[in-house]
Each structure stands twice: as C-alpha cells, then as structure tokens.
# Entry
Amino acid sequence: MSIASFAAKHYTSAHKRLLHAALAHFFDTNFPRFFGPEIRDRIAQQLVALMEAQMPPATHLRPGQCLWNAVAIDTRADSAHLRLVPVILTLVDAADITRLAHGDRVVQVAHDATARLLDEAYQQGALLSMRDLGLLTWRSHRVITTYRQAWEQAHGRLLPHPGTLQDMGSCITHKIAIVVKTVYEHHDPRQVARETHHTQQAVDQYLRDFHRVRTCYRQIPELEFICQVTGMSPYLVKQYLEIIAKYEPTPLTGNLA
# Structure
C-alpha cells in the first residue's frame, strides 16, 4: 500500500468529527430520499456559514477547538499583576485533516498548526508559551520549539510568543532577526517591527544595544569590558558578538570566553 493511499484510508474518516460532515450525515440519515450527496453537502456548507455569521467564533467552540487561559500581551507570566485571557484555539481543522489524507507528513502539518495556534492567541490579545502548546498537544516544550523554529525559518517570519515579545526564557531569536534584517540586510526598521510583532521602541532598543556592543568590541574586544560598559549580561553580549562574527569580516579576538 502506498503512503498516499494509506494516508487517505487512515485520515479521511476524521472529517466526520467536524460540523459540516455531521450536518450532511443528519440529512442523509433523516431525509435519505430528499437529498443526494451533492445537495446534502451544499446545504451543510450553507448552514455552517449561516451559523458562523450568527455566532462569532469568540462565543462558541467548534469541533477541533478548545478554550485555554493564556497570558495577556500586556503582562508577563512572572508578573505580580499577571492577567490571563481566555482564548479559543483551533487544535485541528478541516484543512489539517485534508492534508493528512492527501499524504502530507504529520510533522509538517504540526509545524503549520503550531503557527496557527500562536497567531490565534496573539489575535485575541494573548501569548502562548511553548509549555502551553506542549500541554495542549502532549508534547515536550522542546519539541514544540523545534516546530516553531522550523516554521519561522521556512516562512521568514517570527511567531508571537513570550520569548519574542516579552524576553521570557532564553529565546533571543527575535533580537538576532531584528539586527540582521535592519543592520545587514538594510530593511526598514518599521517593516522589521511589523514582521517581528514588536513595537518600534523595542526594535530601536535592540539596535541601540547591538551598536553599543559593536562599538565596545571594536575598541577593546574583551567580554568583561563590554559587559561593564553596556551593563548587559555575558550571555546577551555573546549573542550580539556572534552576529558580528558571522556578518563582519573582522574575526573575534581577545578574551571572549
């Protein structure tokens, strides 16, 4: 059996869990002589559209969705004034099932679903952590991180989460992306701010920090000296120095261990 035929056999029936298929099945069971398959499908499609128009997504859950409390964008998980926002997340939708039935790899669909969940929470005023997504999908936060990073690399866009917008955890990918796009790829800082879900003030701050590190490095390439002058942690300074080493011809020298 080919991979494609196995996938179709294994996943296609999962569509029955969704509202559209449930409505079509209702008409098939209760009015078998009145509607053929195409008519049933069209009626079901129109009913779903009508219900969506009458009931905004924020007021009800569809099959494949769940309700979760996520940290509000304007607070932090470690804040004494933590505020949680209830968000509706789509764990599985019809497009996911269709892709699997057509033979797409589960891991690729998982990459896109991870991006969808992060964007959905952000659009509702909240941020999902990798731990949140790990709990919702019964995967470790490290696995979810690899999914997110793979999607970001493939699409050239940073996804919104506490690591990129609130400096939570050890994530500094957003800083690297902002510096590289602005300093070395000469993108407009305003465009970079939009692409990375950052305020203009945040982008300006990261650029100032980078230029301070680079100026100090060019004077005295000593990690301790740079940390003392800038007031930044050695970990963060090293990240900026790695950008310099990668994108500028002058090799790193001095005591940077």
